[in-house]
Amino acid sequence: MQSKTSFNLWYALVTLLTLLVLQSMWSRAVRIEQIPYSQFQAYLAEDRVDEVRIGRDRIQGKLRDPQEGEAPQFLTVRVDEELADNLAQHNVRFAGEIENTFLRDLLSWVVPVVLFVAIWMVLIRRMMGKNGIGGGFMSIGKSKAKIYMEDDVNVTFADAAGGDEAKAELQEVVSFLKTPDKFQRLGGKIPKGILLVGPPGTGKTLLAKAVAGEANVPFFSISGSEFVEMFVGVGAARVRDLFLQAKEKAPCIIFIDELDALGKARGVSAMGHDEREQTLNQLLVEMDGFDARSGVILVAATNRPEILDPALLRAGRFDRHVVVDRPDKAGRRDILEIYARDVVLSPEADLDVIAAMTPGFAGADLANIVNESALLAVRRDKEQIGLEELQEAVERVIAGLEKKNRVLNPAEKERVAHHEVGHALVALALPGSDTVQKISIIPRGVAALGYTLQLPTEDRFLMTQSELENRIAVLLGGRIAEELVYNEVSTGAQDDLLKATDIARSMIKAYGMSPKFGQVSFDRDPRSQFLQTGQPQPVGDYSELTAHEIDCEVRRIMDEQYNRVHGILGARRDVLREAAAFLLDKETMTGDELHHIATQAAVTALEASVAEVIGS
Ligand code: ADP
Question: Does the keyword Glycosyltransferase apply (predicted)?
Answer without folding.
Answer: no
